[in-house]
Amino acid sequence: MWKLGEAAFAEVDTFAWVQRWQISRQWYVHNYRDRRFNALIACRLCTATGRGNAGKPCGECDGTGRVNLLEPPVRRPEQSSGGRP
Ligand SMILES: [Zn+2]
């Protein structure tokens, strides 16, 4: 019985490990949590409303109201039009 449970969890645990989820085991209960949730915080610029000045989407969080600490908003540098053949 115990071995069967371990085998059943093994596949899920492997998947969770690949996804870099946080795994907490308590007896036969395994909890999975995406670490990225820990990185989400409320946007301070718009106080999590997602709205900036004049009703426009907030530029800091792109209108989502949340900022991901692991993946900060990508600010693409201005690309020159030259360089392409
Ligand atoms: Zn914002």
What does this structure look like?
The mean pLDDT is 76. This protein is α+β, with helices and mostly antiparallel strands and 85 residues long. The strands form two sheets. A two-stranded antiparallel sheet has the order 1-2. A two-stranded antiparallel sheet has the order 3-4. The N and C termini lie far apart (65 Å). The protein is built from two helices and four strands; from the N terminus they run H-E-E-H-E-E. The structure holds zinc ion.
Describe the structure concisely for a colleague.
It contains two helices and four strands; from the N terminus they run αββαββ.
Following the backbone from N to C, one meets helices and strands in this order, namely HEEHEE
Number of domain units = 2
**Oligomeric state of the chains in view:** single chain
Shape: elongated
Report the β-strand fraction as a percent range: 15-25%
Quick check: average pLDDT? 76
- How many strands, which pairing sense, and closed or not: the largest β-sheet? 2 strands, antiparallel
Q: How large, in whole angstroms, is the Cα Rg? A: 21 Å
Structural class by secondary-structure content: alpha+beta
- Low-confidence regions: none
Number of helices: 2
End-to-end span in angstroms?
65 Å
Strand order of the largest sheet: 1-2
Q: How many DSSP E strands?
A: 4
Fraction of residues in helix: 10-25%
